[in-house]
Amino acid sequence: MLTPDQLDPTDPEGAIAAAAQRCSNWGRWGADDVLGTLNFLTEDKRVEGAGLVRRGVSFSLSQRFDMDGPQKGWRRRTNPVHTMLDTGTDAERGQGFPHGLGGADDVIAMPLQASTQWDGLGHIFDHGNAWNGRRAGDVVTSAGDSVTGIETVADRIAGRGVLLDVGRAIGTDGELPDGFAVTPAHLRATIEAQGDSARVGRGDLLLVRTGQLTRARRDIAEGRGWGEYAGGPAPGLSFTTADWLHGTEIAGIATDTWGFEVRPNEFDVAFQPLHQVAIPHIGLFLGEMWDLDALAADCAADGRYDFWLTAAPLPVTGAVGAPVNPIAVK
């Protein structure tokens, strides 16, 4: 297991290769597996999650999908564009329907990872290798992901959710500063501070709040806009959490940041190295840009940090990621 003091910032290749070997789940569920860590989310885990509903209060964990989002066009990622095809004005003037019927209709154009979303197993490769040791080119072509497309898990992501509010437990005023690397020690300290309901284990859906979205919202309210929320410096998971993520056997993990892991990354020259281990080797589903603030406030108020969570991705056939409106119920 790599500790923060052992991380050599000059050797991302070596660190990624070593972590990939230590944390590999290739072949664990057979050569044909397309579910990765969602294999840990069993029927029993869903029953456990459903039993956590006591008050019936629900929280949407999704940011909005609109033209005022944080995207700046990186890799052609833009904010959603919503266009009306039929409106009330059209209805008033007549749309050709009988007996006075009128209607409105609309369309949206957007990258599938423009707002709250899951990264699928076909999203990231390591040296041309996809999840479970397949060749990347055999998995994802111009026609999409024909093996691990996001539609393969459309009925899977529902179970016990756990919030680790690291921003509140470790940070200042509920927030971690940009560039803060969340280590396994920080995660363990947060669990200890939050108590038994924050225990994390096999089949859980883990949510990590850093507070960056809270800060972005404050900047927007004060007229500064989104700033660098999409792709810029951010708090996030340290590369050294790879072994912890593997060892806890969680089914998926999501954060309130654009990129899940700390940015700038911890190596001198690197781009999302934790993704390079977590997705193609661990087979872990990563969620990004989730809105955890209202849920976190409620958890802090009642002292309970686990809940029923349903977070099915939009089953776009062959997609390597997809939008989601996660719902947490307590």
From TrEMBL:
GO molecular function list: arylformamidase activity
Any Pfam family matching the protein: Cyclase
InterPro entries listed in its UniProt record: KFase/CYL, KFase_sf
GO terms, biological process: L-tryptophan catabolic process to kynurenine
Database matches in PANTHER family: CYCLASE, PTHR34861
Identification of the protein by name: Putative cyclase
